[in-house]
């Protein structure tokens, strides 16, 4: 089921969302300060490309990066994460209007969490 869902997602807009994230990530990586934010855009692009069967989980690493993740997430929300999350919310609601679109709406709702708080998260 996840393979069919990913193929349908890819054809009907997933590739466009992923290309937007990849282009934004590459643009952000033009400066040294933007590299961490560009990496997060690439992470969002990977999830946007094939979202079915992937989970967003908390990144458990022994280094104490909790405060840095919080600060980077706050900067991310100010820079554009809020608007990205609103876009995913809009498309999630639109897709959930029909029964066939509910799985695709759920994927957009899953992406809202990562769009708001990408630092400290990993995709498995």
Overall average pLDDT:
88
How can the largest sheet be summarized? 2 strands, antiparallel
The strands making up the biggest β-sheet line up spatially as: 1-2
The total domain count is 1
* Beta strand %: under 5%
Distance between the termini: 18 Å
> Structural class of the helices, strands and pairings?
mainly alpha
Q: Classify the helix fraction into a percent range.
A: over 70%
Helix and strand run: HHEHHE
Overall description:
With 124 residues, the protein is mainly alpha-helical. The chain has one domain. It has 4 helices and 2 strands; from the N terminus they run ααβααβ. The chain has a two-stranded antiparallel ribbon with strand order 1-2. The longest helix is centred in the middle third of the chain and has 30 residues, at 66-95. The model has no long low-confidence stretch (mean pLDDT 88).
Question: What key phrases describe this protein's structure?
Answer:
two-stranded antiparallel ribbon, about 120 residues, 4 helices, mainly alpha
Task: Please render the helix and strand layout as text.
Elements: H1 2-28, H2 35-49, E1 56-58, H3 66-95, H4 102-116, E2 121-123
Antiparallel strand pairs: 1-2
Helix pairs in contact: 1-2, 3-4
Can you describe this structure in just a few lines?
This protein has one domain. The protein is mainly alpha-helical and 124 residues long.
């Amino acid at each position: 089921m996840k393979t069919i869902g990913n193929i349908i997602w890819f054809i009907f807009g997933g590739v466009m969302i992923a290309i937007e994230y990849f282009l934004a990530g590459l643009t952000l990586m033009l400066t040294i300060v933007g590299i961490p934010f560009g990496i997060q855009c690439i992470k969002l692009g990977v999830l946007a490309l094939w979202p079915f069967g992937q989970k967003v989980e908390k990144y458990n690493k022994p280094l104490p990066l909790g405060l840095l993740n919080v600060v980077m997430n706050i900067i991310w929300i100010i820079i554009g994460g809020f608007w990205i999350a609103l876009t995913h919310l809009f498309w999630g609601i639109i897709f959930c209007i029909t029964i066939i679109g509910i799985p695709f709406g759920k994927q957009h709702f899953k992406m809202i969490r990562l769009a708001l708080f990408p630092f400290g998260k990993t995709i498995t």
